[in-house]
Structures are given as C-alpha cells and as structure tokens.
Specification:
There is one protein chain. This protein is 40% helix and 22% strand. By secondary structure, the protein is an alpha+beta fold. Strands 4-3-5-15-6 form a 5-stranded mixed β-sheet, with helices on one face. Strands 7, 12, 13 and 14 form a 4-stranded antiparallel β-sheet that branches. The protein has a two-stranded antiparallel sheet with strand order 1-2. The longest helix is centred in the N-terminal third of the chain and has 28 residues, at 63-90.
Length: 294
C-alpha cells in the first residue's frame, strides 16, 4: 500500500470500527454512507482479507480487522501526539526568560549564541542579568543561571554550554622589566598581584598545577576587584599580575600588550553550565536551552 489516499482509507476504516457503524462514521467524516462502505470494501480488496463482518443489523471486526484496528489506532495516536509536540515549534514561542550570569559568560557564550533570537524567536524576551555573586535563582525569580559546572547546586538540571575555561597569568612588558620574569610559582612572592574578591569577601586563591599537584597562591597586592574584566583592565595599566580567563586577554597577548607566564602551570576551570530547577520548562526556555547546549 502506498499513497496518501491509502492512509485516508485506513483512517476511514478506523472510524468505522470505532463507531461500529458505517452511518455514524460517515456522519463524523461528512461523507455519504455509500462512499464510506465502498472505501472499506476497496481496502479489503487491496489487502486481500476481510476486515468486517456485515449483517443487516450489526457490524463487527474479523480477527484480521481487530489486528489492523489496533495497529492503525496506535499509529494514529502516535501521529497525533507528534503533531501536538510540533505545535511548540509551529507557534512562535513567547514569554520572558530571565538568566543570571557573569558578564564574562554573557559576553562570550550567551550573547553570541542567543543573537539568532532576534529573527528566529522575536516574541521571546531575554533578560540577561549580570552578577558575579552566586544567587538563589528560585528565590530571586530567575528561570535559569549560569555557573561553572562544578559550582552548580545539587538538585538542579545542568546543561554544558561552553568548553572548559583556560586561565592565564599576564602582565605588561614593563612590569616584568621592573620585577623580573616569573619562571616558577615561587617567583610570584616578589610580584604585586591583582586579586579577585568573591561576594562573601574572600579572595580567589590562584590555582596552579605543579608536578601533577594542585597548588594555590594567595595574591598579594594593592588592587582587588570583584570583576575579571576589571582585573584585566588593571593588568593592561601595569598595576600588577592578573590571573584571568585566557579568552579575555587573547588579543592583548597576540599584540604583545600583555605577556603570559607560567602557562604550563595554568589551571582550567570547568566549563559554563546553564542550570534550572526542573525538567518541565516553558517552550521559551526550551528554545534557549537548545540554542546554548553543546
């Protein structure tokens, strides 16, 4: 059996079997009873089996008819379910999606990947709120948040949206002329360093790898920031060594404005993950997830 009309014939047969009557099935379909009866006879002829037992007062399925009815009913139910799911894509998703993320994550991951929404999903409003502190996205009414994977709270659904993040230690050429070149982590003690402060007031201790072991350096210096962009900006001004994500200063390194040191000791941070409380998400958030995940 091939051709669209044969699928229509199966649908007619299914309704006849369900209603137990040519007359009722014809009324449901808006067709003449004779046409419905002829469709079923032609279907039987093509299949080479009798599907219905007809008498003047009753209509019942043969064993072959029962088997075909179960198959057709299941198939059409699956098709209906699939078409209902497609409605999420056919009808333009709308609504507001609020995401809490660091400015770095917004600049390097969210904006580049979600820029397509301007044309693809014009009815979705995106609120990308930049904060470096870790917030409770449920209490503060965010739909999702972005953090490195190892910092996502338990119980959250997490989706990786970026590769692991390579850190790099940099300073200006003049800095190294004044303080000397850094060759080992022990040399850091003689250099002013630019520190990163978390929301709770603690400082990020620089994580480095030496002979296969993770070591930490507590940065000492005059400058403390709560934003990695400001750390990089301070390093460009010659205020000290900064330890920041490599993509933030890649252009400076390429042009020689900043020089990387201790690259073989550098740490990699777990990649950024989009996280949210449960799997039952709105169609708008589903579009965001699909656009961001890697």
């Amino acid at each position: 059996m091939t051709g669209r009309e044969n699928y229509n014939d199966l649908h007619v047969f299914m309704l006849v079997a369900r209603e137990g009557s040519f007359t009722k099935a014809a009324a449901r379909l808006g067709l003449a009873q004779s046409g419905v009866s002829r469709t079923v006879r032609e279907l039987e002829a093509r299949l080479g089996v009798q599907l219905l037992m007809r008498t003047t007062r009753s209509l019942c399925l043969t064993q072959a008819g029962e088997q075909l009815y179960r198959t057709v009913q299941s198939s059409f139910q699956s098709l209906d379910a699939g078409l209902a799911t497609l409605a999420h894509y056919r009808d333009t998703p709308s609504g507001t999606v609020r995401i809490n993320a660091s400015q770095h994550a917004i600049d390097t991951v969210l904006l580049p990947k979600l820029a397509i929404f301007r044309q693809r999903y014009p009815d979705i409003r995106l609120e990308l709120i930049s904060e470096n502190r870790f917030v409770n996205i449920i209490d503060e009414r965010f739909d999702a948040g972005v953090r490195p994977g190892d910092e996502v709270d338990e119980g959250m659904v997490a989706v990786r949206i970026s590769p692991d993040l390579e850190m790099v230690m940099v300073a200006t050429p003049d800095h190294f002329l004044q303080y000397g070149f850094v060759q080992t982590p022990a040399d850091l003690a003689g250099h002013p360093c630019i520190a990163y402060q978390f929301a709770d007031g603690s400082l990020y201790q620089w994580e480095l790898w030496q002979e296969g072991k993770l070591i930490k350096h507590r940065p000492q210096g005059q400058w403390v920031f709560s934003d990695s962009y400001m750390e990089a900006a301070a390093a460009r001004m010659g205020l000290g060594l900064a330890y920041v994500p490599k993509d933030m200063v890649a252009a400076d390194i390429e042009h020689g404005a900043l020089i990387p040191v201790l690259q073989s000791f550098s740490h990699r941070l777990d990649g950024q993950h989009l996280y949210y409380p449960h799997r039952n998400v709105s169609p708008a958030l589903r579009m965001v997830i699909d656009a961001l995940k890697i």
